[in-house]
Amino acid sequence: MTDMAVSGGEFRISACFTKSLSAFFANFVSFNLLGLLIMVPGFLVITLLFGAAFAGTMLLNPGTSPESFGFGVFQFAVAFGGWVLLISLQYLLIAVIVYGTLQYLQGKRPGFLPPLLQGFRRLFPIVGVAVITSILFLIGFILLIVPGVIIALMLCVAIPVVMVERPGVLAALSRSRELTKGSRWSLFGLFLVTMLSITVVQFVVAVPLDSLLFSDALTFTIGVTVGVIIGAIASLAVQLFTTVFIAVVIGVAYHDLRVAKEGVSTEQIAAVFD
Fold first, then answer.
1. How far apart are CA 55 and CA 250, in angstroms?
2. Is residue 12 part of a domain?
3. How many domains does the chain fold into?
């Protein structure tokens, strides 16, 4: 791949989105398998964590109904631990897909194992960025949504910075703010187009699937429970594809911002992985 999609020092929404689609579909199998490998064990651990917490609470309070347990320090610690694990896995997936995307833009096949290894090598700063940015997003959205959007745009390329430039957590956040300065309206447009596209795809998939699964003929054949399970699996698959595609968009956006603002080449950006 070349840098011809970003010319004249401009960050172009159409070029970025088109390259994101190309990278996503060219690596559809490997990227989504990476997503499964990262997220499925994580969900199992979270399920076991909450199950163990519930069982422990039952043992410590014999004869007490679950409705009367309340939400104490122990429950808060478990919930917070589960939240940190979940967002850390999501950000790890983004980091892994960003690596694969930058390799693809360089004209290489990212493969399966190298992106995973690169992600785990930067695990601690990834977790740090995940926790801080998620808290900032939450605070921003509590403050009437708009501050949350601004913060999200400022920090949207913090994970690519962690993967490529390898600074500390706070330096990565600062570097993302610097890179996105002057291009945030374009980034807003890019992510708006991305989310609208995802919404259309989800609608196109969900409506016919629901109509099929819960039609009288199929419900009679496979039963309501099986239909619900199949629907849930399909919904999770769409969510996985969505997360992976957004990660690809973030990787391409970082690449195009650096090419446009700093004049570097794709090879220079990805040279850190050689």
1. 40
2. no
3. 1
